[in-house]
Amino acid sequence: MRRLLARSPIDGFVLAILAAVVVAAFFPARGTFAEVLDWAVTIAIGFLFFLYGARLHPREALNGLAHWRLHLTILAFTFLVFPLVGLAIRPLVEPLIGHDLYTGLLYLTLVPSTVQSSIAFTSIARGNVPGAIVSASASNLIGVVLTPLLVVALMSGTNGVHISASSVIQILLQILVPFIAGQLCRPLVAPFLKRYAEPTKFVDRASIVLVVYAAFSEGVRNGIWSIVSAWQVVAVAVIAAVLVIVMLALTWWSARRLGFSRADAIAIQFCGTKKSLATGLPMATVLFGGSVVGLIVLPLMIFHQIQLILCSWLATRYSRSHDAVDAR
User: Fold this and answer.
1) How many Cβ atoms sit within 10 Å of the Cβ of residue 169?
2) Residues 6 or more apart in contact with residue 63 via CB below 8 angstroms
3) In whole angstroms, what separates CA 294 from the centre of its chain?
4) What pTM was estimated for this model as a whole?
5) Most confident of 54-58, 66-70, 248-252, 291-295
6) Residue 307: per-residue pLDDT
7) What are the contacts of 84-91 at 24+ separation with CB within 8 A?
8) Closest C-alpha to 141, from 200, 87, 85, 64
9) DSSP string of 48-111?
10) What span, in angstroms and rounded, lies between the C-alpha atoms of 64 and 325?
11) pLDDT at position 208
């Protein structure tokens, strides 16, 4: 089974998430189990962001500020250009997929960049790896605060999305406070997390799978599958693929026009176009309520897998072209 998953073009983590969706569709949490699950998800989200805080080294972001143009460009694509694109496509895509799924598309444009895959693809493509490390880390550090603020500014008041004062307090208690606690405890727990990297990685991924199961269970109880058709899911996948391709082209073109080197342009392309499933899913559970949660996270799940496939192909292509030049 492990070899089969290794050969699969779909990431094993995404397969687990899809499995959670299927299980929730047929066996949603109900009654007392649903109440216990809600408490478990609350604890899991807090622990998840504690781990994020404990893993991210603030010194990396501070030491890398010398290349401020690179980091500012990546952050601008992540938190400015992406949301503007999300708003601009509304007249085109909302009539096709409906308001709730469009809300999910807009939400995915607001979440921070990935860390591991952004750095990995930059490394494979022979890009600026130190720059990618700093920018991806900074994106997650800033995103803990900026993503909820962008959601409040751009999404509050839309149908099914209501950000109240209690929601803001919940954001602080479930996301920001654990994250800060993780940063403060980092000198104590970082060696342990480094020594047991694989087990802790399993714990945080299992937490996200639990979040997905809880979100989709609530959606099923509220009739999510009666309002989402197979055509809408296919349409979201096509839109997500086009969005990834457009952003990959835009980041590369802009980086070269701004005079960045090839290595810097690669870092900008991979860090500026990625969206974090690991951060976006638990945030959505805190920010949104009711059956709309399942619809909102669905586009992010689809986008995440598509970006991994396309960026993997592109990084390999860059690596081969780099090796060909060196061989001359």
Assistant:
1) 10
2) 134
3) 15
4) 0.74
5) 248-252
6) 87
7) 85/109, 85/243, 85/246, 85/247, 86/110, 87/154, 89/239, 89/243
8) 64
9) HHHHHHHHS-HHHHHHGGGGHHHHHHHHHIIIIIHHHHHHHTHHHHHHHH-HHHHHHHHHHTTS
10) 29
11) 72
